[in-house]
Amino acid sequence: MGAAQAEVLHPLLAALLRAFGERVAVPAWADPAVLARLLGGSRPPLECWLVRDVASGGLLLQAQPAGARQSPLGEALPVDAGGVRLQIEHQGTRSARWLSPADLPQALGALAERSQIRLDTSAESVVLAPVERPRGAAGWQCGGHGLALTGPRLGGVDARWEESALRAVAGSSIPPAAAPARAWQLAAEAVGPPPAGSPLRFGIDPEFGLWAEFTLRSEHGSATQRLRWIEPGSFRMGSPESEPERYSDEGPQHWVTLTRGFWLADTACPQALWQAVMGTNPSYFQGDPQRPVEQVSWHEVQGFLRAIEKLLPGCEAVLPTEAQWEYACRAGSETPFSFGGNITPEQVNYDGNRPYAGGAKGRYRAETVPVKSLPANAWGLYEMQGNVWEWCADGPRAYDERAQQDPTGPVSGDEGAPRAIRGGSWFGHAGWARSARRGADHPGGRDADLGFRLSLRSIEPGQVPAPVQGRPGRPAAPGGRSSGSAAARDEPLRTPTLWERVRDGFSFGKDKKR
């Protein structure tokens, strides 16, 4: 209804209500705020409550607090002579009606996945819509004081948000009146934990859910690293025989269940963080402290992780296992890449002259890009594919068809045994960046396209950091770095000669990756 029509009809409607009271059928377009102003009156507003009936799952607007087998949804809603305008939107259709206090209690129905209920009084508007549990939330509940949410423990801290700290958004950031009828997402500003001086902060963003981050400062610089909580779950590890450019060590494809969640950095370790912790920057590609650190060996990364633990009390710093890495990289996908059946250089940093499975050629940057330069996967992890290969905690294991629970490759014994690397790099062709693509390198190896991504676990005071758990796997057939031919891949690892080290310093180890 236009503003001019409303200006004429609202006084007429108010006159009818004064004359005939609640016998008047008030149309749905009536504005409670305008009616309340026109009707006036000395009666105080009636306190009403939104409640959920536990038995039916339906919602009610009633004139008394929640009773037995009812759960309250927030605080009391004042309803005066202007009444309540009720709007229900479900799967693209919208219905509306006006309610007086005499119409209460009023059944509002149940909230479906794509529905929305809006209540307007003279004083406020309330929107009821499904809110999805944020990814990574350890627990949430709705009570008399509204919604409360807790996050997974890290550094001895359980982050918690109350109703006042949470906000709901649909899509990006739009006002409730214009929000589409679909599940909303929760968001919250960063909150610091109770312990004084802790570098940890926690927050929620609507797209990817919970995050934790720490900021470290030293005489060598400062850096902030954000992490995502990777929830426990099951996935199919490896690739199907039909996947183009597949290698035999990617099969047989088998189910893997990870029983414990873990915090994983949302980027490869940037040079700024390595510099702040270790006081050096061994990377070949420099100029931007947000480029990923490279030319770091697996053994050197272990030293970095021990240094991180001293700076983050209550945290154990580790590398993800090969199974954890692939699970996080896939982010629920079963396609060759987390982005789908193919990729472009706008999604992944690889050699665009060597596309995947007949795809179009594209840009070849011939260098690393700063972290978060390219799109994240569905779980908020950036550059899991391309840019730099990433060290894993364990060595490559031989696959079989049996379902596995928390599997690991070889993790003890010969310190020179190869360690798994994953993800492909700026130098490799697109097929090397596939989620299932496997590589390995000598733990002392360094290359200008080899970095890492850290993972954190929470430990209590006095608790000894746990070793990598799971069923140890058999070593895979000895092999060099992710290779482009079966013959090259099956060459045994060995310590490079001095000439090879000099050569690789100029060629970035290209011979080891082909």
UniProtKB/TrEMBL annotation:
Residues 229-454 form the Sulfatase-modifying factor enzyme-like domain. InterPro entries: CTDL_fold (IPR016187), Sulfatase_Mod_Factor_Kinase (IPR051043), SUMF_dom (IPR005532), SUMF_sf (IPR042095). One of its GO terms (molecular function) is formylglycine-generating oxidase activity. Residues 400-423, 459-514 are annotated as: Disordered. Residues 470-487 have a biased composition (Low complexity). PANTHER family: FORMYLGLYCINE-GENERATING ENZYME (PTHR23150:SF19), SULFATASE MODIFYING FACTOR 1, 2 (PTHR23150). This is Formylglycine-generating enzyme family protein.
